[in-house]
């Protein structure tokens, strides 16, 4: 069975993170290079390496990886590392020396230790953002071996032309993860008045909109509080047991500064609109954004704003209120099929995203797709084929939940792939990097043909058509409508 899809699309990868941070002041690697994480020499670094085995310690989405996987359309998310990642807590006195802390961060991120030390001292996210942007912008063109090329694209027309021009060309859409990136040294000093802070925030947003290739989407927040919007709990496992502190700002609303940033980003009057990606926003912050966009779309029938959540899973709750009836902890997901945390989408949210003609990217973090009940069901499986089938099931169950929530065939139109490769995820077994996406396609199609799994949700589509929609077509259709 040969794939009918001519290529694949992934709406959330972090291709620049390891390579841009491969040295300081000058990166040692290009965006094409394979990079393996250093293990460190201190005992704490070795401990965190041992206890994070499910996080890939190598490049997952460098541009050769994208090319090997025929992932010719990729949204690369720029991300200056938040300070919260470097403020590890609950460490014994034995691991509080500076080198041990820096090596622990190095092991998890894959950054060079010189870059870690620079980030720890640096107090200008905005300067880091611009430097990362120049890093990828200046490398446009041919790969080191001369076989492939990539271009940052400004709109769907440029993307379509590039894709049709050569089968060895990659079309790269830019995004940003976390609006902390707009904070420059003045803003982080704590010395600006509210008025001057708001002015600086507005100016920096406008500067990004004036880039040669501005981002198409941005997340208002990421893992830690930035004073714009509260975040959802995202860390579990070794990192989530107290090593990284997400308490400040957890599940709080949009602030006045956050509302200002949202309006500036979504405006068409100060440059191209940058869509808000809801991933990582607190549930209360998402509710505020949904209400604002619904009101805007009601009044602006010819300029509707779609809602995008680029890398997520479903939580199986019918309503947003249900998502937070229990606190987000390990007990909440211990006996559930899906990951029930509020960072994932409820049926109510899925309907809202569908209503706006938005897009939902299913990520390839197995712990965001499945809950304890699912992992209990696979823990004794040793046969590779059976295990592949179980992972096909949980990926498809997330998709079926979206279709079921929408209640019609058009539910299939809003599902995409947002792998989050190189985002320090616990990747789905067998699909650890972009070059494995053709295998993911084949496994999903074969599984559906063999088992007719979830047939009532197919709505007349063939397995090839369904998986092509998720891994390519829906993204291109979305870009055709909104990436202008």
Word description of this protein:
By secondary structure, the protein is α/β, with parallel strands linked by helices. It has a single domain (8-482), classed as TIM Barrel (Alpha-Beta Barrel). 42% of the residues lie in helices and 10% in strands. The protein has helices spanning 17-20, 43-50, 63-68, 98-109, 113-121, 125-138, 156-165, 185-188, 194-209, 237-240, 256-266, 283-299, 320-323, 330-333, 347-355, 366-369, 372-378, 384-406, 437-451, 463-482; strands at 8-13, 71-78, 141-142, 149-152, 169-177, 217-219, 275-277, 308-312, 359-362, 415-417. The strands form two sheets. Strands 1, 2, 3, 4, 5, 6 and 7 form a seven-stranded mixed β-sheet that branches. Strands 8-9-10 form a three-stranded parallel β-sheet. It is globular.
Quick summary:
The protein is built from 20 helices and 10 strands. It is of the alpha/beta class and about 475 residues long.
Which secondary structure elements does this structure contain, and how are they paired or packed?
Layout: E1 8-13, H1 17-20, H2 43-50, H3 63-68, E2 71-78, H4 98-109, H5 113-121, H6 125-138, E3 141-142, E4 149-152, H7 156-165, E5 169-177, H8 185-188, H9 194-209, E6 217-219, H10 237-240, H11 256-266, E7 275-277, H12 283-299, E8 308-312, H13 320-323, H14 330-333, H15 347-355, E9 359-362, H16 366-369, H17 372-378, H18 384-406, E10 415-417, H19 437-451, H20 463-482
Parallel strand pairs: 1-2, 2-5, 4-5, 5-6, 6-7, 8-9, 9-10
Antiparallel strand pairs: 3-4
């Amino acid at each position: 069975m040969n794939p009918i899809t001519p290529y694949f699309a992934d709406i959330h990868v972090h291709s620049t993170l390891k390579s841009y941070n491969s040295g300081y002041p000058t990166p040692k690697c290009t965006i094409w290079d394979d990079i393996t994480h250093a293990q460190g020499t201190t005992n704490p670094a070795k401990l965190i390496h041992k206890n994070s085995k499910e996080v890939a310690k190598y490049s997952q989405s460098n541009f050769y990886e994208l090319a090997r996987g025929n992932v010719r359309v990729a949204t690369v998310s720029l991300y200056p590392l938040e300070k919260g990642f470097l403020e590890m807590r609950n460490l014994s006195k034995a691991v509080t020396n500076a080198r041990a802390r820096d090596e622990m961060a190095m092991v998890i991120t894959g950054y060079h230790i010189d870059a870690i030390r620079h980030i720890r001292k640096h107090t200008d996210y905005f300067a880091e953002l611009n430097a990362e942007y120049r890093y990828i912008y200046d490398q446009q063109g041919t790969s080191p071996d001369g076989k492939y090329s990539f271009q940052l694209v400004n709109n769907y027309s440029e993307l379509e032309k590039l894709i049709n021009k050569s089968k060895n060309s990659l079309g790269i859409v830019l995004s940003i993860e976390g609006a902390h990136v707009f904070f420059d040294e003045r803003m982080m000093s704590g010395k600006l008045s509210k008025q001057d802070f708001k002015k600086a925030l507005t100016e920096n947003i406008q500067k990004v909109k004036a880039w040669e290739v501005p981002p198409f989407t941005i997340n208002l927040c990421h893992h830690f509080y930035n004073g714009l919007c509260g975040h959802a709990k995202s860390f579990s496992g070794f990192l989530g047991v107290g090593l990284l502190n997400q308490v400040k700002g957890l599940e709080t609303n949009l602030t006045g500064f956050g509302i200002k940033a949202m309006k500036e980003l979504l405006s068409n009057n100060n440059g191209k609109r940058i869509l808000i990606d809801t991933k990582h926003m607190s549930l209360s912050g998402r509710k505020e954004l949904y209400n604002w966009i619904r009101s805007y779309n009601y009044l602006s029938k010819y300029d509707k704003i779609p809602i995008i959540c680029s890398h997520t899973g479903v939580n199986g709750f019918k309503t947003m209120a249900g998502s937070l009836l229990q606190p987000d902890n390990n007990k909440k997901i211990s006996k559930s099929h899906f990951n029930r945390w509020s960072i994932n989408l409820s049926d109510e949210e899925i309907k809202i995203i569908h209503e706006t003609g938005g897009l939902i990217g299913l990520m390839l973090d197995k712990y965001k797709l499945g809950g304890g009940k699912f992992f209990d069901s696979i823990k004794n499986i040793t046969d590779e084929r059976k295990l592949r089938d179980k992972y096909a099931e949980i990926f498809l169950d997330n998709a079926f939940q979206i279709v079921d929530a929408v209640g019609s065939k058009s539910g299939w139109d809003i599902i995409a792939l947002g792998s989050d490769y190189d985002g320090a995820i616990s990747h789905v077994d067998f699909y650890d990097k972009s070059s494995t996406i053709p295998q993911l396609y084949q496994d999903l199609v074969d599984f559906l043909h063999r088992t007719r799994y979830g047939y009532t949700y197919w709505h007349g589509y063939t397995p090839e058509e369904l998986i092509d929609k998720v891994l390519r077509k829906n993204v291109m259709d979305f870009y055709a409508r909104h990436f202008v």
